[in-house]
User: Which sequence fits this backbone?
């Protein structure tokens, strides 16, 4: 087997442009998805049943439908209700929407895993249910939540490759464009894999560093 | 005769078919130290938890300084308080757990500050440093105030838990076997603290214990059996 090194040299900077888009989309979706996921996770402990039902329905929908379908729904269905988003922002919204559902479950499960005595101690000093959640339970999940949260964020970065189907010029789409011109799928997909591997390794390293920092604190 | 602080009438708690507390009544005056004794599973802990509504009683009433705990009669009907209203009432009742239940992300001082902040309705974030220092001194914890619970021994953790319960000077302190997990030295420190609080601030304390030394320090001992208060126990039984 021989590799076409000239194509590889040419593809590296072109794919790097796709990497920039992938990083932008991923960072935005990580921020929005994490914030929304935490809010939804806390919402699952709300005293108002409609809020709990909404969170349950949201999580069930996200878990029960493929990400690709959710991407299409956001891209094609939102304009029907008068919301027109560019491919880029439709991608960000779809990934955030998906991540928020899974992160909400991570948050809920971690809060429920905290010893019941913590809630009782907080109630015994006169905390309201909201104060218990915000000042006692939430600070205790930051460290245990990191490994599953990192897994979810890694899935999100990988899932950004699906946005190529709505013409977002991210890493996979950039690779497909090069392949359609040069017909060298092996070299290009190998390069794409390498770029994703570096991106995700960096994310995992950041997570481990943060975990160590929280452990020390 | 000291005025009545706590009046419990016909307190009953059922868990399904099982009756944990069966119509207990009790009146406690300001400044009393009362010890509750009885065999394991006789309903002592449930009785105590019903007083500050960590458990909602099935029947009966609890009145603290003429204010009903857990709800009130309005237009001839019993209206239970919301969780926020209950929280406000619990600020007047300190509770010490057998298993400490300190907040692990906060230092010893942080645990106390949080209790003070809640007690002050969030307007008292810094609390009263003087009072905090005094409580920590009484419990010999001054050099541990910046330690997190996991860096403390079991005895030190229980002393911090006690400090957290009393730092706001609640009207009533409930303690569920506070020396149950402690060695004799730490038990003595905790019991001394109770006595000092009672002597200096007329603090009213209701304590469950199996510890004869703890029982010996109080003027009034109540015995429970099968969910009922059977009799004041004579001291010779302890």
Assistant:
């Amino acid at each position: 087997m021989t590799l076409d090194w000239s194509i590889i040299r040419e593809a590296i900077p072109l794919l790097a442009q796709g990497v920039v888009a992938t990083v932008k989309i991923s960072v935005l979706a990580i921020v929005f998805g994490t914030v929304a996921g935490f809010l939804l996770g806390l919402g699952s402990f709300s005293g108002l049943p409609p809020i709990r039902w909404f969170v349950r329905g949201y999580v069930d929908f996200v878990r029960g439908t493929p990400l690709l379908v959710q991407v299409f729904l956001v891209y094609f269905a939102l304009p029907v209700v008068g919301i027109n988003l560019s491919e880029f922002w439709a991608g960000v919204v779809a990934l955030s929407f998906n991540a928020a559902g899974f992160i909400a479950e991570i948050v809920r499960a971690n809060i429920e895993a905290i010893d019941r005595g913590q809630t009782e101690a907080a109630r015994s000093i006169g905390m309201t249910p909201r104060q218990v959640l915000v000042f006692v339970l939430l600070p205790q999940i930051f460290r245990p939540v990191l490994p599953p949260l990192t897994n979810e964020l890694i899935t999100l970065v990988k899932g950004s490759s699906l946005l190529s189907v709505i013409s977002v010029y991210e890493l996979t789409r950039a690779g497909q464009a090069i392949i359609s011109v040069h017909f060298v799928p092996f070299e290009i997909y190998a390069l794409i894999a390498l770029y994703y591997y570096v991106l995700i390794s960096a994310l995992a390293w950041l997570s481990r560093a943060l975990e160590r920092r929280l452990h020390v604190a | 005769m000291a005025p009545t602080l706590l009046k419990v009438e016909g307190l009953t708690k059922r868990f399904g078919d099982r009756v944990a507390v069966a119509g207990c009544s009790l009146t406690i005056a300001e400044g009393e130290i009362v010890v509750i004794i009885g065999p394991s599973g006789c309903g002592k802990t449930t009785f105590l938890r019903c007083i500050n509504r960590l458990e909602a009683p099935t029947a009966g009433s609890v009145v603290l300084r003429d204010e009903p705990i857990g709800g009130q009669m309005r237009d001839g009907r019993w209206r239970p308080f919301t969780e926020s209203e209950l929280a406000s009432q619990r600020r007047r009742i300190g509770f010490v757990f057998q298993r400490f239940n300190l907040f692990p992300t906060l230092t010893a001082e942080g645990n106390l500050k949080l209790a003070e902040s809640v007690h002050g309705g969030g307007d008292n974030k810094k609390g009263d440093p003087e009072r905090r220092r005094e409580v920590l001194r009484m419990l010999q914890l001054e050099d541990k105030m910046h330690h997190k619970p996991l860096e403390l021994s079991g005895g030190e953790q229980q002393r911090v838990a006690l400090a957290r319960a009393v730092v706001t000077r609640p009207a009533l302190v409930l303690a569920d076997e506070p020396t149950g997990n402690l060695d004799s030295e730490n038990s003595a420190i905790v019991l001394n603290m109770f006595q000092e609080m009672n002597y200096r601030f007329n603090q009213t304390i209701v304590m469950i214990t199996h510890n004869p030394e703890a029982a010996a320090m109080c003027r009034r001992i109540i015995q429970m059996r099968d969910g009922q208060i059977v009799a004041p126990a004579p001291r010779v039984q302890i």
Notes: The interface with chain B takes residues 47, 115, 117-118, 120-129, 131, 135-136, 139-140 of chain A (CB under 8 Å). The CA atoms of residues 19 and 91 of chain A lie 15 Å apart. Residues 5-43 of chain A form the longest helix (39 residues). Chain A is about 80% helix and 0% strand.
